[in-house]
Amino acid sequence: MKLVINASKKILVGCIVFFGIVAILKGSGLIESNSYHNIVRGVYGYFDLQNSVKFNTDISKDNIKITADNEVLVVVLGESTTSQHMQLYGYNKKNTPLLNTIKDNLFIYSNVISSDVITTKSLPKIVTSIENSGKKETSTNIIEVFNKSGYKTYWLSNQRPIGFYDNQISKIASVSSYLKFLNHVNEVQTTSYDQVLLPSFKSVLKQNGKMVVFLHLIGTHFDYNKRYPKEYNKFLSKSTASKKEKIINYYDNAVLYNDFILYTFIKELQKQHKKSALLYLSDHGENVYDGTDFFGRSETILTKSMFEIPFFVWVSKDFQLPKDFEYKPNRAFMADHTYESIGHLFGVIYKDMDMRKSIFSNTFKERKRKVIDNIDFDTYFLEKHE
């Protein structure tokens, strides 16, 4: 009897502590670092994705159409970076000075949004055929398509794997020819700067043969002031500055460092003198006091900046663009159709790819961009929900 009472007391105390912590965190205004929304809502979505998605294991080269003879494609997957805080997109601070020097050589898309505000839900929809509009019986991993097409595939990550096979992202990455995680620490706590990827990236580019390289950044993830070395501490706050001003400056410094990383990737590609391209987009955006008085992300308090993401492409001079390529910088696009766009851009078309979904196609068809809880992104914020 005593054991039963003690056990009951422990459960009661545990419940009180748990709900007390949630209440405190919810009232703190600090969304990102505690991620209570991930606990309450995000976890369900994550496990739903884990348990419901089955990947196509019967990909045949006979069902892949090769339309170009390109050599190197680099897909840079950013983290927590909103286009609202980038000079390249009209932000009022000079925090993308390097990319701005080559902006005339970039295809910059200004109306791209993420499908979700949590990485474990948004990123799988970028590199597979999973989409927000509905579930398929099976989905296709873009890495597998390239594997079957004769390309060597690489996944280099500055994010922790979280146990190779109990995370959907790690499962997707695990089919790569070469897989390397350079960070095994919690995203909030880590100070592993993205330049840690550069030596491996340079080594990969020296390999022979056609390749597709995925680079998964830690980007501008909270804690923002841990995302960059001290030489990128350009935007300084006075000792009397408010918490809000300090956090905004931390974030803008992180974007400045991200600018250096992306520019360096492009310069390394140029050195190879191959038919190459680099696509960069972020998994989702971030609210940094942009729409309401908090920083981070939430599935219950939505702002445009949580969804608005950078999306641009650099190509070498001899890169073979698709014959039906059309550059429309203001095209309304949601990142869950990046799967089709990658295949289209590089000229590796699997049978389930619909070119009307590719942001690069002259047959692109706009759609209602439905995000969390079937919200129409393009009308929701016109009604001033922020």
TrEMBL record:
<dbReference type="InterPro" id="IPR017850">
    <property type="entry name" value="Alkaline_phosphatase_core_sf"/>
</dbReference>
<keyword id="KW-0812">Transmembrane</keyword>
<protein>
    <submittedName>
        <fullName>Phosphoethanolamine transferase</fullName>
    </submittedName>
</protein>
<dbReference type="GO" id="GO:0009244">
    <property type="term" value="P:lipopolysaccharide core region biosynthetic process"/>
</dbReference>
<dbReference type="InterPro" id="IPR040423">
    <property type="entry name" value="PEA_transferase"/>
</dbReference>
<dbReference type="InterPro" id="IPR000917">
    <property type="entry name" value="Sulfatase_N"/>
</dbReference>
<dbReference type="InterPro" id="IPR058130">
    <property type="entry name" value="PEA_transf_C"/>
</dbReference>
<keyword id="KW-0808">Transferase</keyword>
<feature type="domain" description="Sulfatase N-terminal">
    <location>
        <begin position="73"/>
        <end position="321"/>
    </location>
</feature>
<dbReference type="Pfam" id="PF00884">
    <property type="entry name" value="Sulfatase"/>
</dbReference>
<keyword id="KW-0472">Membrane</keyword>
<dbReference type="GO" id="GO:0016776">
    <property type="term" value="F:phosphotransferase activity, phosphate group as acceptor"/>
</dbReference>
<keyword id="KW-1133">Transmembrane helix</keyword>
<dbReference type="GO" id="GO:0005886">
    <property type="term" value="C:plasma membrane"/>
</dbReference>
<keyword id="KW-1003">Cell membrane</keyword>
